[in-house]
Design goal:
Elements lengths: L19 E6 L2 E8 L10 H15 L6 H16 L8 E9 L4 E6 L4 E4 L5 E4 L25
Antiparallel strand pairs: 1-2, 2-3, 3-4, 5-6
Helix pairs in contact: 1-2
Length: 151
């Protein structure tokens, strides 16, 4: 017998320019929080980027093995489809969960998080632990890549 799943999502009103997006599919859900390019370029809207990435994730998650691979493939697809470069591309966090009758998987990129509520009343919070190595002043960090976006 399959237990029911409840997917909760929320976003704060962003006025006329909300950069948050979410996507819910069969057995998965993701929340994305778009942000301006680390280079400060404003030629692409962060909300637009988060929307493109959400759409790509909705296509990659159902067929991917690992969730990290699904997100990597989605980022590459958006980059390649729109000819994006590191200096002009907005960024986005990703909080992603996929579930079946047997397992719940999560993947977090950036400073968003996933909360899994268990049937015994406990909860588990999943975060991107890679942020811990960056320290508290992430605004001063500039990532340099060779030949393209991190993905």
């Amino acid at each position: 017998m399959s237990e029911s799943r409840l997917v909760l999502h929320a976003t704060l009103a962003g006025g006329t320019n909300n950069q948050d997006r979410y996507v819910i599919g069969h057995g998965f859900a993701a929340v994305l929080d778009g942000a301006t390019s680390v280079a400060g370029d404003r030629s692409h809207d962060p909300g637009w980027y988060a929307e493109q990435l959400a759409q790509a994730i909705s296509e990659t998650v159902p067929r991917a093995g690992a969730l990290a691979d699904a997100v990597t493939e989605a980022i590459r697809a958006v980059r390649d489809t729109h000819g994006l470069t590191p200096a002009t591309t907005p960024t986005s966090t990703v909080a992603l969960a996929r579930w079946s009758d047997e397992v719940v998987e999560t993947y977090v990129l950036g400073d968003s998080y996933v909360v899994v509520f268990h049937t015994d009343g406990t909860e588990t919070i999943h975060t991107d632990s890679r942020l811990d190595v960056l320290g508290h002043d992430v605004g001063d960090v500039r990532l340099v890549t060779q030949g393209g976006l991190l993905a």
